[in-house]
Amino acid sequence: MNGAGKSTLLKVITGQTEPTEGSATVGASVRLGYFSQYSSDLLDPSKTIFEEVESRIPMATIGTVRGILGAFLFSGDDADKRIAHLSGGEKSRVMLACMLAVPVNFLVLDEPTNHLDITSRDVLLDALTRFEGTIMIVSHDRYFLRHLATRVFEIDHGKLNIYEGDWEYYREKTGR
Question: What tens digit of pLDDT does each residue of 132-172 get?
């Protein structure tokens, strides 16, 4: 449901904004990665794709950086493209590569498949399926949710409903 406060909830959880009531505390051992619909705005347009990812993991070898880029469909000369010349989907893939390059154990993703083509969405889905930590996702992409969700939190008219099951379980219980 649009306008229900899902993105605001994620911003509170990640410390991007203060809650209007109560508090949100993330555990001391949690290493958080946050991707919002506007995360690609944080990329430096003057850098190449390689330089942007390398700047997040400066101790990594060239081979490691190229491996990460390859996993997000940037191979060969593509890695030398400037951020300024990328499409919205390519910028999203770069941002996701940057986020997954650093060791995190809790990913918070706000509409991660927006601006992604089908191939890029599948690459992201594969990376997230292999991710060993916790993932919290706000998404309207049912295909994506069907493959990733193991518990569904629904915000409906200011009320949080929790469904202790996958996407199909949620659909059975709600008829949606």
Answer: 999 999 988 999 899 999 999 988 877 889 999 999 999 99
Provide the whole-model pTM: 0.82
Report the C-alpha gap between 39 and 7 in whole angstroms: 13
Closest CA to 83 of 42, 112, 33: 42
**Amino acid sitting at position 138:** V
CA angle 116, 18, 145 (to 5 degrees): 30
> CATH number for the 6-174 domain, one of 3.40.1190.20, 3.40.50.300, 3.30.300.30, 3.40.50.12280?
3.40.50.300
Residue 57, SS3? Answer: coil
Give the end-to-end CA distance of the chain in Å, rounded to a whole number: 12
Measured between alpha carbons, how far is 171 from 78 in angstroms, rounded to an integer?
41
Per-residue pLDDT at 113: 87
Half-sphere exposure of 130 (CA within 13 A, CB side): 7
Beta bridge partners of 82: 48
User: In sequence order, what E strands does the chain have?
Assistant: 32-35, 106-110, 134-138, 152-156, 159-163
The alpha carbons of the chain give a radius of gyration, in whole angstroms, of 17
Tokens coding 87: 């499409």
CB 152 within 8 A of CB 173: no
